[in-house]
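Please discuss these two lines.
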Amino acid sequence: MLEDDNLNQTTLNEEENDGTLESMHHVNNPVLDLPKIEKKYLETVVSHNQNDKSYYFSDGKAKVEIKIVTDEIVRVRLAPQGTFLEDFSYALAKKDHRVSIHQCKEEVDHYSVHTNTISCRINKSDFLISFSDRAGKLFNADLAPMHWEESPDFGGYYVYSTKVAFENEAFYGLGDKATKLNLRGKRLKNWNSDTYAFAYDQDPLYKTIPFYIGLKDGEAYGIFFDNTFKTYFDFAAEDPGKTSFWSEGGELQYYYIHGPHIIDVIRRYHTLTGTHYLPPLWAIGYHQCRWSYYPEANVRKVAEEFRKRQIPCDAIYLDIDYMDGYRCFTWNKQYFPNPKKMIADLANEGFKTVVMIDPGIKVDENYWVFREGKENKYFCRRGDDYFMEGFVWPGRCQFPDFTNPEVRQWWGTLYQGLVEDGVAGFWNDMNEPAVFGRGTFPDDVRHQYDGHRGSHRKAHNVYGMQMVRATYDGLKKLYKNKRPFTITRAAYAGTQRYSSVWTGDNLASWEHLKLGTLQLQRLSTSGMSFCGTDIGGFTGEPDGELFTRWMQFGVFSPFMRVHSAGDTRDREPWSFGEDWEKINKKFIELRYKLLPYIYTCFWEQTKYGYPILRPISMVEQHIPTNWQREEEFCFGDKILVSPVLQPGQKSKIVYLPAGDWFYYFNNEVYIGGKEHTIATPLDEMPLFIRGGSVIPEYPVMQYTGEKKVEELQLNIYFSEGVHRSYVYSDHGDTFAYEQDIYLEKCFTLSGLKDSLSIKQTRDGLFTERYEEYKLQLIGLPFAVKKVKTDGIDTKIQKDEQGRYWINVAREFENILIEG
């Protein structure tokens, strides 16, 4: 071997002398001319092919997929090096989508991918992509080709899409952003953040919903940028002619969702991400919360005051102080020596108990949850395999990896003890995730991501969503056929399948009351209708007027809860004196009267994808002056409210959409399509019912289900023309509705100057407990002479206020009222 080595060395020396070695040495050198890292853009389309509903276009290296999801939804994906990432999304619901027809046509300068409804054009020369309807009207168009930039620190790419911002185009959506409804002129970021006492225009906040709606020339489309990394949106802020969205990692993948109506865009977005689970009826009653109600005597006292004062309430919340040293799934036995008995006693008085659960698990070898998590390796780890540890309420904590399905299943089982104690609902907080001192997890924390792996850069925005998913799925098993109730602070698109949401730690100020109205309208149009604010403000000190005006708005928040910090004054409905208590009681009772209407709105969200809160820009999108309106909104399609948002306000200007509108408190009729000046005494708020509506009403109860409904009151608001209303009912707390054990009633009103007919159709197998409807006829323009129900003469009564009342069998088919 030594001789061979010497021979080799001699040969090398000879090669070096004749220059051969120099060339070999050059070949083995590192590359010195590294390519410059810069943005790269799609270039000329050079090839295309099809695989089922997906059409692929390439510039020779990068590849773009145009996938037909439905007749109205197209997905666009970019692979900078021609290879797509695994097709996986937490946002998408598992649904089968139908497509009627789709095809690709090649023209001289472009390709067109068509469905029955829309056309996607791909320019050959510059790879610009645009979307039109089949009549050729342009809805959305690239301003620049999709582009990307390599990320040398993390791998992968920063990815960008730049669209044309058309003149006067308005933009809506993006979840709980604390800014005006129309996002034009704003640049916003999505990175779930714990933002205590956030300010107007502060960004980012608690939730990531990368979905927006564009409205141009009175017609709408949507863009859903399904990317969980830190994402950005620029709505003509940097350049008035340009709208952009981009991400710090992941794939450029977005869905174009066609309208042309805003409500159609939202419904179709729900076909992708799912609708809200149908909550138990008690969950949409009034809820009372504080950080914190303890000890047990304090909780019992609050409950006692509600019943003594006859103020309706369905739920009392226990914040983190109910735990033993802030250890989740435990009880502080000093404060709550017998929680099971306390919860049972509260339940006997009609109160459900809701408790908080955080993701931080205290590092304590004597704590069973920590031991189980450690033994099974369920906690998140850093890039170098150290456990992710951070300080939150219990002190040093470790955090479950909720992107691991095995961890989610385990987490769901941890609720068993609390469920056996009688806890009815659960509140997931601090799940942005929040960590004291540093804000959140470091970027290098690793996540299992359902087998798709990722760092915290990828998993951060879905962490809270996957936590509440684990909670909801676990509770469904534990409660068996009873519907769970969950609420989460952090969320990503699709969280509505598992939870309600609230807007986080707001401030007791008139500005935050206004912000709350904007945030809830925005959440509702962003797919998360089951939303609310901390009524009265979480921190700070409201006076009686602010608290009461907020309570009035709270009646028309899908989720109605008072919540406040422990270092502030009491926030019960009676805390501000007798006069304010009387008004608060009046409006909480109004909530309970309207529960069958509100429950119907939830059903329409669950089954059909209709948003519960509807801004005026949605209700009448064809009128440009409505695109900036913010203070009026509809709850469902029959009720319009305009909360009082200024101290000492005696009146306000309210716009009413086209049609007849009845002022709720005196049934005065207002003509829509214009603004009206409405008086705002402290015990009223601008509240209107659309003419032609049938509004079901319950008797006032102290909690849902307290009384048997002997007859359901239907308030009939006259208007000429044909109008439809729906009323939904079921057991109120089970999943039997999934087997058609529900009742969906459609009432069709046909109003003429001298007559009114009411037709009813019924669908479903549920049987109501009452036998009759009690109809109140409001606003008839004629004196009633005769009433026939299914051809039989029917008795009618007229009260001192001139209102007509009739009682009819619940299964009537046709009522004819003649003047």
Observations:
- Residues 456-478 form the longest helix (23 residues).
- Residues 1-24 have pLDDT under 50 and may be disordered.
